[in-house]
Design goal:
alpha/beta, Rossmann fold, Arc Repressor Mutant, subunit A, seven-stranded parallel β-sheet, six-stranded parallel β-sheet, 37 helices, 30 strands, 15% strand
Length: 938
C-alpha cells in the first residue's frame, strides 16, 4: 500500500517525505479526510504529527488552486501557542512560498496595518481576535476569503465561556465566508462527540482518534522515610514524610534528561521550588505559572529548551503543546484530581511515534494516595471524565449581539436570532429569551435601542467602549500581597476571588502551609498575624483546586473497602499489597501505606462505603462520609446548611472535600431530616435563594456584570457597593447568568437530585461510627500543610518581630536646640539617646518620612507663630521626646512600631514586664489593633 503522502501536491509531498520519511498513524487517517473537505475532529497525543496531518492537506490545497488571502485561520487558545505554531509552520511556508502571520493582543498597530495592506494566506490567532477582526471594515473584506478554520487544543476551550464565545464568533464569521471547512484538534477529550457537536454545530463531521492509552505509563509513588530523610528533616525543619517525597522528586529529575514537574496550584509550585533548593541550592530549575510575567516564562522556556535546566515546576501553564524540547518524564506532585489532567500532562513526555509517555505521581498521605492511584489506573485505561459545557450563556450572548450591531449598525430581531440559534450552546434558545436580553441591553444597560419606526435593533454610542473592553471573557484577577505584621514581610499572595469570598477582618486562612488571621485589607495588601489553630482556617488555594469527579471518589471508596475486606479475611499484608499492585500502577511502598491507613482505621471504626453515608460526631462537628466527589458534596452541603441555618436562625458552617462533608453547629438528625423530607426538585429552588447572598455568588456576579457592561472591566470589587449592585440587578439576566455559571462550574444539581432520591428510597443508607476516626481526621487537615514548617511557636514570632523592629529606621530630632536630626536603625541607637550638638536628652522619636518636623521645632524655638496643624504636630513631637527622656531606647523601640504614637507608647511603657517577649508582645498587639481599626478612623 502506498504512502498517504502520495495524494498530496508534489512539492508538499517532497517536503513531507524529507521531514517525516513515512506518515504517522494520525496522518494516515486524518490527511485524506481533510483533503476531501470534511469537517474533522482529530484526537491524537502530543508529538504525533496531528498538526501536520491537517496542515499538509491544506498546504496541498493552497498549492493546487489559487486562494485569495486570508485563506486559512488557525486558532489556538494561548498567545504563547501562537508564537510556537508560527515557529513550527514557518519552515513549511518558506519552502512553499506561502505568507503566514500571527495576530494576538500584543501585535503592534504597525503589524496590524501591514496584515491588512499585505494580507497573508495563513493567519494564526486566538479565538478572541476574531471578535476584534470582525469589526474592521477592511478586515471583513479579507475574512470573506476564509476557506479553512483550524481550532487547536479544543479541549482547553470547550468547557468554558471562551468556547461559547467562539461558537458565536464563528457564526458571525460565516456570514462573510459562507461555509468554511472546520478542523478541530485535541490531545485528550473526554466526550469526543460532544466536543465535535459543540464546534461543528449543525454541520456534518467525522472524528479521527488515534490516542492509545497503552502508550501511557504512570506510576504512583509515596516513599517511606529513610534514616537520612529523618536526619535531614531535623536539619531543615520539615516533616520527614515531606523530605522523603522531595528527595524522591529530586532523584527522579536527576535520573532523567529533562522533565516537567506539575503542581495543581501556583502556591504549590513556589513552595516546592523553595523546598528543592533546601536539598540543593544550585539545583537547575525554574518556576512557570500564569502569575509570572511573560518575559520570565519565555526565558524559562528558552533555558529549558537549551537544556540549561533539568526541570520546570509548572501549573497548567505548560499543559498545552508549547514546544519546549524533548521531555522524557512528567512528575505530578500530589493528585492531579482529574483523569484528563494527568493524561494531558503525561502526554507531554516521550514525543514521537512509538515512544512511551512516562509519568510519576508523587502522592502525599491519606486521601491523596488513594485518589492518585485511582486516577492513574483510569488514565492508563483511557477512562476520561465526560465534558461539562456552558449552554446559553447570557453575558456572552449580549456581547456578541453588540458585536453584530457594530458590524451592521442595525439588524432585524429575527436575523439576530437566526444567526445565533445555529451555535450549539444556543440551540435551545427561544425567541422570548433573546427578546429579554435585547430589552435588558436597551432599557437598563443602554447599549442598544429598538427603533420604534422600523422595529430594528440598533447600537448606541457606548456600545463600542463596552465591546472592545470585553473582547475576552477571561476575568481580570488582581493579586493581593499577604503581609505578616510581625515581620512586615510578604508571606504569599491571594487572588481576588479568595479576598471576595474570605477577605473579612478576623477570617482565617492557610498560605505557605501556615494559618493566618486577617487584620486588614488595604489596596492590594492583606495584613495578617500568625495563629496556631489550623482546623478553623480555609486553604488559600481552595478556589484554584480542580474538582474531583464523582467516578473517582466512588472508586476511592471501593478501593478502601476492598482493602478493609481483605484485612477482615486475615490476609497477610504482602498478599494485599500484591492484589493492589495488580490493579493499580503503584509502588510497593505506596500500596503498603494504603494497607496501613485502612488497618489503623478498621481497628475501632467502620469503613465508609461508596453507596452509604457513614457519619460520626466529634465535639460540635458532624462528619459525613459521602464519596460523591467535590461538586456533589458541595451541592449537598450548601442545600443542607441553608435549611438548618434558617431553622437555627444563625449561620451553620461547613467544609467540603470529595470524600467528606464536615458541618459545625448542628445534629446529625437535623441533616437526615433535611435529606429525607425535601423533594429532589426543591434543591435548585433553595440553592437559588441561598446562593444569591453567598460570597461565591458575589464574586461571580462582579465578573458577569463586567461581561454585560454593567460595570467597567477594571472595576475593583472592594470599591463597589456590591449589595446595592446585586439589589439593582436582582432577577435580571446578570443575576440569572451568575446562578447559571455557579450551577455549571461549582455544583452538580442533576447528580445530587439522583442521590437525594436514592437516600429517600433507602438505596443509600446512613450508618454510624464513633468519632473521631482516622479517615474523618483527614478532613481536618489540608493539602500542603506538611510541605512547610510546622506552626510557628509564639517565641519565634516575637523573635522575628523584635528583629523587624530593631531593623526599622527612625528619625531622632533634638527639640532643645533644633539643630540635630539623624535617621538611623533602631538597633544602632544608644541606650540613652543624646543630642550630639547640645548633649540634651530631649530627643523626639519620629518616622523617617516626617521631613517637616525639624522646621516646625526651629520655628517654635524662634518664637514664630505656628499653624493649628503645626501646633498639633509639635504636641506629638514633644510627647515623644518626653517618653525618650524617661525610657530611653525602650521608647525608641516602642515608637518604631507601626501606628504607635506617643499616647499608645506611654501605655505600653508604663507597664512592668516579666520578660522581653512580653514587652514585644504588647507592641505587636498594639500594631495589630491599629491595623484592624484604622479604616474606621476619620
Amino acid at each position: 500500500m502506498g504512502s498517504v503522502f502520495n495524494i498530496l501536491d508534489n512539492t508538499v509531498k517532497g517536503l513531507a517525505v524529507s521531514r517525516f520519511k513515512k506518515p504517522t498513524p494520525v496522518q494516515e487517517l486524518a490527511l485524506p479526510k481533510v483533503l476531501e473537505g470534511k469537517n474533522v475532529l482529530v484526537i491524537a497525543e502530543t508529538g504525533s504529527g496531528k498538526t501536520e496531518s491537517v496542515m499538509l492537506a491544506l498546504f496541498s490545497k493552497l498549492m493546487e488552486k489559487e486562494h485569495e488571502p486570508l485563506a486559512i485561520l488557525y486558532l489556538t487558545p494561548m498567545k504563547a501557542l501562537n508564537r510556537d505554531m508560527m515557529d513550527r509552520l514557518v519552515w513549511w511556508c518558506n519552502k512553499l512560498d506561502i505568507d503566514i502571520s500571527v495576530r494576538h493582543g500584543d501585535t503592534t498597530q504597525h503589524q496590524r496595518k501591514l496584515q491588512v495592506e499585505h494580507p497573508p494566506k495563513i493567519m494564526i490567532t486566538t479565538p478572541e481576535q476574531i471578535n476584534a477582526m470582525l469589526t474592521g471594515k477592511r478586515l471583513r473584506e479579507l475574512l470573506k476569503n476564509i476557506k479553512y478554520i483550524i481550532v487547536d487544543e479544543i479541549h482547553e476551550i470547550v468547557t468554558n465561556k471562551r468556547g461559547v464565545q467562539l461558537t458565536l464568533s464563528l457564526e458571525r464569521l460565516k456570514r462573510y465566508c459562507g461555509n468554511p471547512q472546520i478542523i478541530a484538534l485535541s490531545a485528550t477529550v473526554g466526550s469526543p462527540k460532544l466536543a465535535a457537536d459543540f464546534i461543528f454545530a449543525d454541520k456534518k463531521y467525522e472524528i479521527v482518534k488515534t490516542v492509545n492509552p497503552k502508550d501511557l505509563r504512570i506510576e504512583v509513588q509515596s516513599p517511606i522515610p529513610t534514616k537520612e530523610d529523618k536526619k535531614l528533616a531535623e536539619k531543615i525543619f520539615i516533616g520527614e514524610n515531606v523530605v522523603s517525597r522531595l528527595r524522591n522528586i529530586y532523584e527522579e529529575i536527576k535520573q532523567h534528561k529533562s522533565s516537567i514537574t506539575f503542581t495543581n496550584t501556583r502556591e504549590a509550585a513556589e513552595i516546592l521550588s523553595s523546598r528543592l533548593r533546601l536539598l540543593d541550592k544550585d539545583f537547575p530549575h525554574e518556576i512557570h505559572h500564569s502569575s509570572l510575567s511573560k518575559s520570565v516564562r519565555i526565558n524559562a522556556e528558552k533555558e529549558f529548551k537549551a537544556e540549561k535546566l533539568k526541570t520546570l515546576i509548572a501549573t497548567s501553564s505548560l499543559e498545552l503543546g508549547i514546544d519546549i524540547g524533548s521531555i522524557d518524564l512528567i512528575i505530578q506532585y500530589m493528585s492531579p484530581r482529574q483523569v484528563s489532567k494527568i493524561t494531558q500532562r503525561v502526554g507531554r513526555s516521550g514525543h514521537g511515534i512509538g515512544r512511551i509517555s512516562k509519568g510519576k505521581i508523587i502522592a502525599s498521605e491519606a486521601d491523596d494516595i488513594f485518589e492518585s492511584s485511582v486516577i492513574a489506573r483510569k488514565a492508563m485505561a483511557g477512562e476520561l471524565e465526560p465534558l461539562t459545557i456552558h449552554t446559553g450563556s447570557l453575558d456572552v450572548l449580549s456581547h456578541q449581539i453588540v458585536g453584530l450591531l457594530i458590524e451592521s449598525f442595525e439588524m432585524e430581531f429575527d436575523e439576530i436570532y437566526k444567526i445565533f440559534k445555529k451555535a450549539y450552546p444556543y440551540k435551545h434558545m427561544k425567541k422570548e429569551d433573546l427578546k429579554k436580553i435585547i430589552n435588558f441591553l436597551n432599557n437598563q444597560l443602554r447599549l442598544v435601542y429598538i427603533d420604534d419606526t422600523d422595529g430594528k435593533v440598533k447600537r448606541r454610542r457606548r456600545a463600542f467602549t463596552y465591546y472592545f473592553e470585553n473582547l475576552s471573557v477571561i476575568p481580570n484577577q488582581r493579586r493581593y500581597r499577604v503581609i505578616d505584621t510581625a515581620t512586615n514581610s510578604m508571606v504569599g499572595s491571594l487572588d481576588e476571588e479568595f479576598i471576595a469570598s474570605h477577605g473579612n477582618t478576623g477570617s482565617t486562612f492557610i498560605v505557605r502551609g501556615r494559618p493566618w488571621r486577617i487584620l486588614s485589607v488595604e489596596d492590594n495588601r492583606v495584613f495578617v498575624d500568625a495563629i496556631n489553630d489550623i482546623t478553623s482556617a480555609v486553604p488559600a488555594w481552595q478556589g484554584e483546586l480542580i474538582p474531583v469527579p464523582y467516578s473517582v471518589a466512588q472508586e476511592v471508596g471501593e478501593l478502601r473497602n476492598k482493602i478493609a475486606n481483605s484485612l477482615k479475611e486475615n490476609k497477610k499484608r504482602d498478599k494485599i499489597v500484591e492484589e493492589i499492585k495488580r490493579r493499580y500502577p503503584v509502588t510497593t511502598q505506596t500500596a503498603v501505606k494504603m494497607v496501613e491507613i485502612i488497618k489503623k482505621h478498621v481497628k475501632k471504626h467502620k469503613i465508609p462505603k461508596p453507596k452509604e453515608i457513614m457519619f460520626e460526631e466529634f465535639k460540635d462537628y458532624v462528619v459525613l462520609h459521602p464519596m460523591f466527589g467535590t461538586k456533589v458534596n458541595e451541592t449537598i452541603s450548601r442545600f443542607v446548611t441553608t435549611i438548618i441555618s434558617a431553622t437555627h436562625g444563625e449561620f451553620i458552617t461547613s467544609r467540603v472535600d470529595p470524600y467528606r462533608i464536615i458541618i459545625k453547629g448542628c445534629k446529625v438528625e437535623e441533616i437526615k431530616k433535611v435529606l429525607m423530607d425535601y423533594k429532589p426538585e426543591d434543591i435548585k429552588i433553595i440553592l437559588e435563594k441561598s446562593l444569591s447572598r453567598s460570597s461565591l455568588f458575589r464574586f461571580r456576579f462582579i465578573h458577569v456584570a463586567k461581561r454585560f457592561g454593567a460595570i467597567t472591566r477594571d472595576a475593583s470589587f472592594n470599591k463597589i457597593n456590591l449589595d446595592k449592585l446585586i439589589d439593582i440587578y436582582w432577577n435580571s439576566p446578570i443575576f440569572v447568568e451568575t446562578l447559571h455559571e455557579l450551577f455549571t462550574q461549582k455544583l452538580d444539581l442533576k447528580k445530587t437530585e439522583e442521590i437525594v432520591q436514592q437516600i429517600q428510597s433507602k438505596k443509600i443508607k446512613f450508618t454510624k461510627t464513633d468519632g473521631l476516626s482516622p479517615i474523618a481526621e483527614m478532613g481536618f487537615r489540608y493539602e500542603l500543610q506538611d510541605v512547610v514548617k510546622p506552626n510557628r511557636p509564639e517565641k519565634e514570632i516575637y523573635k522575628l518581630f523584635r528583629k523587624r523592629l530593631l531593623d526599622s529606621k527612625v528619625k531622632l530630632l533634638c527639640i532643645n536646640c533644633g539643630n540635630y536630626s539623624i535617621t538611623n536603625y533602631v538597633k544602632k541607637i544608644e541606650k540613652e539617646p543624646r543630642c550630639r550638638k547640645c548633649q540634651s536628652k530631649l530627643i523626639a522619636v519620629l518616622k523617617p518620612y516626617k521631613s517637616e518636623a525639624q522646621s516646625i521645632v526651629r520655628k517654635w524655638l524662634n518664637g514664630k507663630e505656628l499653624t493649628p496643624e503645626q501646633s498639633e504636630q509639635l504636641r506629638f513631637i514633644k510627647k515623644s521626646a518626653d517618653l525618650c527622656i524617661v525610657y530611653g531606647k525602650k521608647a525608641v523601640i516602642t515608637l518604631a512600631g507601626r501606628g504607635i504614637g506617643p499616647q499608645t507608647a506611654s501605655r505600653i511603657l508604663a507597664k512592668m514586664y516579666i520578660n522581653e517577649d512580653d514587652f514585644y508582645k504588647k507592641i505587636l498587639n498594639s500594631e495589630r489593633e491599629f491595623i484592624r481599626t484604622k479604616r474606621f478612623w476619620s
